Amino acid sequence: MVIRIMIVDDHAVVRDGLKMILEATDNIRIVAMATDGREAIATVEEHRPDVVIMDISMPGLSGIEAAWQIRERLPTVKILFLSMHHSAEHIYRALQAGAQGYLLKECAGSEVVTAVLTIMKGKRFFGQGVEPPLERRHGVKSPLDSLSRREQEIMQLVVEGKTSAEIAKTLSLSPKSVETYRSRLMLKLGVKNIPTLVKFALEQDRSPTF
């Protein structure tokens, strides 16, 4: 069986490099390439690939948003994400969007063929440097589940725009303790700054159930 693949990335060198690697395998054929998420959505039904290999971070429509729409149109298509990011946030969001695989771009060249063959067998593939999320009975476990009750309280107050001093007063803690909790929860979620933390929390609130 020939595996039909669409490659979606805004960098030509990545698209061409993946195409060369994949087509060196006899039973893999590249049927389409797109430069961003919108172009991928516009052409996916025409080419009907078995696998869409897609960057997460692209201008305009992100790979995550494109994946939701592609899966709505072609539920059987398999999504393999490429990314420079390996945070719990990015991996969880990718799986919620229906991804079967996740590769770091730095390792994609050596792992992409194995990843494609693995997900075509109905299995998930996580590349080198990617930490698979915990599983629970009804699906993928959210990174938020790793937070303690106090950390969740502090995150909610951060999202509401409260300063450390205001959070400390609300929760009867010292500002130093608030800073410690905040640093710990950000480390667990794999985010490095407050704007990213706020964006992540808001996206969790509006995400469809996986």
Walk me through what this model shows.
With 210 residues, the protein is an alpha/beta fold. The chain is 50% helix and 17% strand. The protein has nine helices and eight strands. The protein has helices at residues 12-22, 37-47, 63-73, 88-96, 105-120, 149-159, 164-171, 175-189, 194-206; strands spanning 3-8, 28-34, 51-55, 78-83, 99-104, 125-126, 135-136, 139-140. The strands form two sheets. It has a six-stranded parallel sheet, sandwiched between helices. It has a two-stranded antiparallel sheet with strand order 7-8. It is elongated, with a radius of gyration of 19 Å. The relative contact order is 0.11.
Q: Domains counted in the coordinates: how many?
A: 2
| Tally of alpha and pi helices | 9
According to DSSP, the number of beta strands is 8
Q: What proportion of the residues is helical, as a percent range? A: 40-55%
Low-confidence regions = 206-210
| Strand residue content | 15-25%
Compressed to H and E, one letter per element, the order equals EHEHEHEHEHEEEHHHH
User: What does the main sheet amount to?
Assistant: 6 strands, parallel
Structural class: alpha/beta
**Do you know the CATH topology of the largest domain?**
Rossmann fold
What is the highest CATH level, the class of the largest domain? Alpha Beta
> How far is the N terminus from the C terminus?
30 Å
Q: Please list the strands of the largest sheet in the order they lie side by side.
A: 2-1-3-4-5-6
Layout: helices, strands, pairs:
Blueprint (H helix, E strand, L loop, with lengths): L2 E6 L3 H11 L5 E7 L2 H11 L3 E5 L7 H11 L4 E6 L4 H9 L2 E6 H16 L4 E2 L8 E2 L2 E2 L8 H11 L4 H8 L3 H15 L4 H13 L4
Parallel strand pairs: 1-2, 1-3, 3-4, 4-5, 5-6
Antiparallel strand pairs: 7-8
Helix pairs in contact: 1-5, 2-3, 6-8, 6-9, 7-8
